[in-house]
Amino acid sequence: MNDRKPADLPDHLRHFIGGKPVDSVDGGTFEVLDPMTNEAYLTAGAGQAEDVDRAVGAARSAFTDGPWPGMVARQRATILNKIADAVAAQDQRLAAWETYDTGLPITQALGQAQRAAENFRFFADLIVAQSEDSYQVPGRQLNYVHRKPVGVAGLITPWNTPFMLESWKLAPALAAGCTVVLKPAEFTPLSASLWPEIFAEAGVPDGVFNLVNGIGEQAGDALVAHPDVPLISFTGESATGQTIFARAAPMLKGLSMELGGKSPAIVFADADLDAALDSTLFGVFSLNGERCTAGSRILVERPIYDEFCAAYAERASKIIVGDPSDPATEVGTLVHPEHCAKVLSYVELGRTEGRLLAGGGRPPGLDQGNFVAPTVFADVAPEARIFTEEIFGPVVTLTPFDTEADALRLANAVKYGLAAYLWTSDLERGHNLAHRIEAGMVWLNSHNVRDLRTPFGGVKASGLGQEGGRRSLDFYSHQQAVHVSLGPAHTPRFGARS
Ligand code: NAD
Q1: Catalytic residues per the record (predicted)?
Q2: Which residue from 134, 186, 314, 391 puts its CA 20 to 30 A from 7's CA?
């Protein structure tokens, strides 16, 4: 027993199907590692097609025969608010579990737990305030939108900020009246095991929420392939998104895909450099760099390039790397040894593709666990792999530019298009550039703070469809058009000629 380990951790995680914890039909399990030691600290049920089928069956019955889809919005919202209260009330415990499982610094895990509660509160408010369109042709026709939940939603989530990203899908899916099967990431299934109790105590009927743990290519694939799951909301790598897209195509499923990123942060010479420095450091090194919207390519206007590089490298080299459970830690451990090896391979590659200014491998004195020092490469060309490929760790590139057109060309020079960050005091330039950048979201002189009402999603290889606010509810709903005649139908009378 180590003193980092929360006292109340389970040592085995079961699936949760139809209101009950259950093991895999074939008894299979997989091991989950503590990222500080890379020793297995628990096992989880390795769900297969049969387990997914049982979970979908339970969700399907709850959808067709249960009260959830037909509840009035206020009733569902009351339950969603109770979920938010329960999440907020145990934010410290949640953060401690999440930190132990993922290696995320505890202060940042706490912020994610609070955001998870907010997601439920937000969608509770939204469904109560929601109105539907009607289109009137006076005296002739009334046309209105009847909104109804689609059915069983399959939710597949990644390992970076697991609980928060699960809440991001669970809250709108449940708010819309869908029933769900959640397949959490196999690297980090721990915090998802808290949902069943939270939902049951809030009054979510049995079968509305189901959870199947397992490996992506097994449990995840079975969920994507299941004929009774009409829609899949997926967050993860672009390559996995492509596989799921192909797999779902024969069934024409509804798909929402939040995928990878390699987002640019553009710093002009007229920017507030202190603010830009703080934001570009936090933007790539927070959440251990395992952040889809990380500003991992910093483009700097030539007149301030040398000064910016020096200041950036100095701050990066002072970032506190250490035990994720220590509140002073700024960068913790990467999630898994496989991922750590991948990030370190990019660090080695970077030595040949750029000028190393900070980091460059394991931090001294941290020989065990998945630690990578915050690493900065300067003078990185747009053809470099460390410029074009998603590393998903604490690694950043710096590249100079001369003109606005140059900056735009560099910003758009990768296959991804998730986020972009712009720092300039010339707002005319800022807005115009924002509109021309190929990115789903742009922050202009702003740190990555997102209003929950705004669209979230990427373009190009970063995603398909947009969620966020009412768009999330649209994804989980059918908007049926009902047309009513208010007078004679005036139908051309086929077959009525004598
Ligand atoms: P991943 O694609 O490896 O796995 C994500 C989930 O998909 C896991 O639950 C996994 O088990 C499952 N999965 C894997 N193969 C599958 C298959 N064939 N069929 C069905 N499910 C399958 O991604 P990851 O490594 O867990 O997460 C990191 C990635 O997620 C990064 O690329 C990151 O940018 C991206 N991400 C994107 C956003 C966003 O909003 N755009 C947010 C967070 C993370």
Answers
A1: 258
A2: 186
Q: How far is the CA of 240 from the centre of ligand 1 (A)?
A: 6
Q: What does the pLDDT look like over 272-287, one tens digit per residue?
A: 999 999 999 999 999 9
- Calculate the CA dihedral of residues 365, 367, 370, 374 and round it to 10 degrees: 30
Instruction: Report the nearest atom of ligand 1 relative to the CA of 223.
Output: 20
Alpha carbon of 30 to ligand 1 centroid (Å):
18
How large is the C-alpha radius of gyration of the chain? 24
User: Do 375 and 345 meet the contact criterion of CB atoms below 8 Å apart?
Assistant: no
Is any ligand 1 atom within 6 A of the Cβ of residue 336?
Answer: no
Q: Is the pLDDT of residue 1 over 60?
A: no
CA–CA distance, 305 with 472 (Å, rounded to integer)? 40
Q: Is 418 in the pocket of ligand 1 (CB under 6 A)?
A: yes
| Bridge partners, 33 (sequence order) | 40
Q: How many residues does the chain have?
A: 498
Domains of the chain: 2-259+462-482 (3.40.605.10), 264-444 (3.40.309.10)
Q: Which residue puts its alpha carbon closest to atom 1 of ligand 1?
A: 236
Q: Which protein residue's CA is at the shortest distance from atom 20 of ligand 1?
A: 220
Cα-Cα-Cα-Cα dihedral sign, residues 239, 254, 234, 453 = positive
Please, which residues have CB within 8 angstroms of residue 301's CB and are 6 or more apart in sequence? 267, 268, 269, 400, 401, 402, 407
Scored b (16 or more CB within 10 A) or e, 114-142 reads ebbbbbbbbbbebbbeeeeeeeeeeeeee
Per DSSP, the residues of 122-157 read HHHHHHHH----EEEETTTEEEEEEEEE-SEEEEE-
Q: What is the distance between the alpha carbons of residues 43 and 31, in angstroms, rounded to a whole number?
A: 4
Task: Render pLDDT for 58-81 as a digit per residue (tens, 0 to 9).
Answer: 999 999 999 999 999 999 999 999
Residue 404: Cβ within 10 Å count: 17
Count other Cβ atoms within 10 Å, centred on residue 19.
17
> Which residue out of 32, 160, 472 has the highest number of ligand 1 atoms within 8 Å of its CB and is therefore the one to mutate?
160
DSSP-derived 3-state class of residue 442: strand
Per-residue pLDDT tens over the stretch 168-217: 999 999 999 999 999 999 999 999 999 999 999 999 999 999 999 999 99
* Residues annotated as part of the active site: 258
